[in-house]
Amino acid sequence: MKTTIQQIKEFKLRGEKFAMLTAYDYPTAQIIDRCGIPVILVGDSLGNVVLGYDSTIPVTMDDMIHHTKAVVRGSNNALVVGDMPFMTYQINVEETLRNASRFIQEAGAQAVKLEGGVTVADKVKKLVECGIPVMGHIGLTPQSINQLSGHKVQGRSLDAARKLIADARALEEAGAFAVVLETIPAELSAFITSKIGIPTIGIGAGPACDGQVQVISDLLGLFTDFVPKHAGQYAKLAGLMAEGITGYAKDVSKGEFPTAQQSFTMDSSVLDTLKQ
Ligand code: KIV
Ligand code: NA
């Protein structure tokens, strides 16, 4: 059964902590889905961990739709959230609706996520009114990396903390069903989590959030260019993959791959005639 928005809200009411993960392709979504993770985010972290860009800024709607379709095909039960790329929801409500609806109608996602609080609340409200569930995202918002001057902890000063609280409240007020808190002090996310009625989902935001989210490539040790402090590494896939690849290359060079097991035969009478 597909996870619903209602069920995600109920996790908070019951005090049941939940995990969310990113995915960008069909096989990874299948594995995550079969592990019972209730929400999969097709993050625009796609840009960093799959496409090889050094930020999320170059990621386009077409990139996101392509990968969201693959994830949707691999997700039987998990609710799929599509991450709206840079500048696809800021310009005006019309463009925001058009782009968000592509995630739902064309790619088959159940919800969208966008970055920002007070400044995007009008867009969030309109999307929700039109039947598109929205997940917010505040704190360290990677699409604003140039304005933020790098990957810094957000909300440490009184003003900045007050601003984040106002952002979280604005998102709840606008009808968002959950909000991602990224790279903010654990004490501040605990406070925000206690002050709003919708689930907070933390990444680098301490243990008090209602849910946690991790980038799958960080979690499984697949992407190693840059490992953020908030990443939990539960496997070392890059090493395992390199082992498989070098083992294969070594066997090919020794003439030990392929063996009869990976080969095909033909009828010996055909072969005899062929050789005459
Ligand atoms: O793009 C992404 O993966 C995200 C999560 C880190 C929340 O936005
Ligand atoms: Na993102």
From TrEMBL:
Coiled-coil regions, chain positions = none
Q: Where is the active site?
A: E182 (proton acceptor)
PANTHER family the UniProt entry points to: 3-METHYL-2-OXOBUTANOATE HYDROXYMETHYLTRANSFERASE (PTHR20881:SF0)
Protein name in UniProt: 3-methyl-2-oxobutanoate hydroxymethyltransferase
Q: Which reaction does it catalyse?
A: (6R)-5,10-methylene-5,6,7,8-tetrahydrofolate + 3-methyl-2-oxobutanoate + H2O = 2-dehydropantoate + (6S)-5,6,7,8-tetrahydrofolate
The highest taxon in the source lineage is Bacteria
Subunit note: Homodecamer; pentamer of dimers.
* Catalytic activity, EC: 2.1.2.11
Query: Its encoding gene is what?
Result: panB
Q: What is the lineage of its organism?
A: Bacteria, Bacillati, Chloroflexota, Dehalococcoidia, Dehalococcoidales
Binding-site list for Mg(2+): D44, D83, E115
Group of enzyme by EC = transferase
Q: In which pathway does this enzyme or protein participate?
A: Cofactor biosynthesis; (R)-pantothenate biosynthesis; (R)-pantoate from 3-methyl-2-oxobutanoate: step 1/2
